[in-house]
Amino acid sequence: xxxxxxxxxxxxxxxxxxxxxxxxxxxxxxxxxxxxxxxxxxxxxxxxxxxxxxxxxxxxxxxxxxxxxxxxxxxxxxxxxxxxxxxxxxxxxxxxxxxxxxxxxxxxxxxxxxxxxxxxxxxxxxxxxxxxxxxxxxxxxxxxxxxxxxxxxxxxxxxxxxxxxxxxxxxxxxxxxxxxxxxxxxxxxxxxxxxxxxxxxxxxxxxxxxxxxxxxxxxxxxxxxxxxxxxxxxxxxxxxxxxxxxxxxxxxxxxxxxxxxxxxxxxxxxxxxxxxxxxxxxxxxxxxxxxxxxxxxxxxxxxxxxxxxxxxxxxxxxxxxxxxxxxxxxxxxxxxxxxxxxxxxxx
Length: 347
Known about the structure:
Strand order of the largest sheet: 2-1-3-4
Distance between the termini: 56 Å
Largest sheet: 4 strands, parallel
């Protein structure tokens, strides 16, 4: 009996490496992602992506194809199956192809990079995502972002534009969060040149090195930010603004990085936040029951400060009022959170 366990650092609770990469590659609108492995790997992730897209109101199917490796391929190698699948996808009109490896493909040792290097007439980009014995969702996310940046060149940065890097395409409020970041940037006179990677086409990926500043979705993406900085010389801000204080810090950090005055934008945002808190005076001092496990987590410090601003009491004996999966982005995220709390407090 084989009693060997996975490495202790495998962090399996975080999810599959393949899923992390698919959350990036399927956001390129004219490209097709090939999952090189058994059909089950593609089917499981396709179902997840389809459900998330439907929940977000995006009623289209993610462009995912499987090489459908079988017993013979596992024994003799799956490179021929991969080549056939790439040619079929290219013949179908894909402007670019991303090839994601599964644990099976990694285990049998297929030379995926060599197959992808052949001349198919369109870019065919391998993304190493066989998370066998260690990889997790974040590793796949990082691998996909760096692979998709691989064909870009250093380019002149247009004045007043930034690049958004690594949006959480699977989170429910992804567009609301982007809109809030875009609003805050606009108060500084700064625009978004590229969302890397969301609602883009394959030709847009070459512009990843053209922003004056990269805005990372969260600090976990710092390794990606560092890699892009080393390659293109682009500085980065390590996170979207979280909560009210985070919005103020974000404005100052972006202003400093771009050499843009931020005092007026900060003053206007602080006034906006004061007005927002005042508009929720009807729940001031109310008691409710937030989930204790999330409320006491370090990343929920901005939420606790919102509670303090309204003198909200935590009643640990209640059923537990749900907090969002991710801390609220910006002032608008706090407003949405307070609206949910108000509805439940007055229910």
